[in-house]
């Protein structure tokens, strides 16, 4: 039997990391029950599925479900001003902890995280409507992890990523999934933001229709290394900067892994170009910490 090519190995890996229907169904169910709880306790305009599940870049076993819960402003207003976002998060935490007494409910950065017994993890980000961008895209205020509020526009970013994915021949979402799997494979796990990875892929047009997955992986690792895992400027100027990590120590650890993986990926691509598929596989297996299909 003829051995798989490197590209076929990447295709096999991508098929293995797709979320299962059971995972998707569980995510939808938790989304519905959390939305019902919030709508019962507060004046909620709407709940929006955001993040990896909404963008189709979630992966098997690892991706969280993210919800932007848009509250009516009076819920988080005292006098004429918005209350501290930390206070808003605590209100949401208390309401969800009462609904899910057997689950771990806690503040995680700008969200309230709920860890369910089935292994599902849901992040709830509270927000309020702020304005419209170019009379088309709603902009919301969400916690900034420092007690204040910052702007975001999920539908605008989703449209940006969708456009880049279409231009890539639908390759971008698969490379994003491969990068997320790479992130989870490393020991310890690399704390790079999923959203940051996707935005860098889109902004730098890493994924081309005729480019192999191996070349795309090498180019995104080169891009992250060149950027030194620092925040990227929001192309629309709404969020200011899009962070790659949450702290200087995380950036240092992430960058070291990015550089190491970049170098092994470069060796793999070169070996494959020279017809040495065994060496290429060995190098990619180092990148994915023994999880690359042989």
Output the keywords.
two-stranded antiparallel ribbon, 294 residues, seven-stranded mixed sheet, alpha+beta, 11 strands, 10 helices
Low-confidence stretches: none
Provide a count of the helices. 10
Name the beta content range: 15-25%
N- and C-termini, Cα separation: 13 Å
Shape call: elongated
Number of domains: 2
Structural class comes to alpha+beta
Assembly state here? single chain
User: In percent, how helical is the residue content?
Assistant: 40-55%
Largest sheet: 7 strands, mixed
> How many E-type strands?
11
Order of secondary-structure elements: HHEHEEEHEEEEEHHHHEEHH
> What is the radius of gyration?
20 Å
Mean pLDDT figure: 96
């Amino acid at each position: 039997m003829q051995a798989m090519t490197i590209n076929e190995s990447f295709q096999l890996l991508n098929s293995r990391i797709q979320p299962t229907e059971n995972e998707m169904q569980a995510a939808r169910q938790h989304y519905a029950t959390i939305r019902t709880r919030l709508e019962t306790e507060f004046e909620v305009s709407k709940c929006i599925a955001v993040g990896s599940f909404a963008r189709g870049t979630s992966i098997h076993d690892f991706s969280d479900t993210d919800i932007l819960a848009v509250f009516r402003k009076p819920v988080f207003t005292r006098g004429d001003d918005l209350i501290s976002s930390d206070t808003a998060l605590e209100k949401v935490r208390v309401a969800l902890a009462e609904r899910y007494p057997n689950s771990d409910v806690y503040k995680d950065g700008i969200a309230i995280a709920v860890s369910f017994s089935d292994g599902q993890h849901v992040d709830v980000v509270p927000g309020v409507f702020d304005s419209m961008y170019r009379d088309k895209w709603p902009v919301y205020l969400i916690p900034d992890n420092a007690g204040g509020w910052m702007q975001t526009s999920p539908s605008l970013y989703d449209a940006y990523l969708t456009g880049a994915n279409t231009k890539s021949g639908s390759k971008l979402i698969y490379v994003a999934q491969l990068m997320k799997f790479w992130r989870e494979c490393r020991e310890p796990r690399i704390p790079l933001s999923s959203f940051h990875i996707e935005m860098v892929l889109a902004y730098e047009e890493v994924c081309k229709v005729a480019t192999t997955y191996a070349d795309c992986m090498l180019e995104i690792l080169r891009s992250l290394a060149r950027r030194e895992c620092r925040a990227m400027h929001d192309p629309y100027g709404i969020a200011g900067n899009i962070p790659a990590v949450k702290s200087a120590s995380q950036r240092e650890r992430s960058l070291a892994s990015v550089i190491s993986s970049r170098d092994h990926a470069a060796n793999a691509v070169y070996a494959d170009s020279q017809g040495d598929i065994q060496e290429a596989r060995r190098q990619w297996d180092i990148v994915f910490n023994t999880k690359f299909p042989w």
